[in-house]
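Sharing a chain and its predicted structure for anyone who wants a worked example. Both blocks are below, sequence first, C-alpha cells second.
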Amino acid sequence: MADYHVTLESAWIVKDVRSVDDAIGIAISEAGKRLNPTAKFVEVEIGATSCPNCEEELNNALMVAQTALVGLTLDMKVFKAESPQHAERIAKATIGRALREIPLQVIEVIEI
C-alpha cells in the first residue's frame, strides 16, 4: 500500500459577478465552504492554463455577461491506497460527496 497526492480539476460557475478577480475569490470561497466540515484537508486553488502563443501562465477563468466559469484545482493526499487508480477513486468519492453536481476530472496522481 502506498500514499498518493491526487490533483483534480473542477469547473465552477459564478453568477452576477463584476470582475474575474471577484469570480475567482467567490469560487474558491464557495468550494472551501462546501468542503469544510467533511473534507477540510483538500487544498483549493485557481487553475492555470498556458497561452498557446507565448506560453505564459493565465488564470483559468472566463467571464461573459456577468457570469464566470472558474477552473479550480483540488489537491488531496490519499494514504494507504492499493494503486493509483484506487487513489483516484478515493479522492473523487471524498471530494465528490462534498461538491455534488460539480464536474471533477483527475489531472495527476503522484506517489509520495
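Comments welcome. The beta strands are 2-15, 43-46, 48-50, 57-59, 61-64, 67-81, 104-111.
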